[in-house]
Amino acid sequence: MTDHDALDRLRRIPTEWHRRGMSAPGEIDQIISARLGERYTTQYVAEPAYADFFVVA
User: Fold this and answer.
1) Residue 24 near residue 17 (C-beta atoms within 8 A)
2) Alpha carbon distance 2, 47 (integer Å)
């Protein structure tokens, strides 16, 4: 197992996030969806692209 594989495995364990004083990504999604309700979804989240930040002049 490489270091990268070990880190990926640890990132999926909420306890490892808590040990470092952080919330796991899944828990953050739950908090946001509880506050925003129907307006928030993680189904169609795409990676940002350059086009998201620049407007054609």
Assistant:
1) yes
2) 26
Instruction: Answer whether residue 57 is part of any domain.
Output: no
Range of the domain at 48: 3-52
Whole-structure pTM over 0.70, yes or no?
no
Distances in Å between the alpha carbon of 40 and those of 36, 44, 45?
6, 10, 10
Residue-wise pLDDT tens for the chain (57 aa)? 688 888 888 888 889 889 989 999 889 888 888 888 877 766 666 677 777 788 776
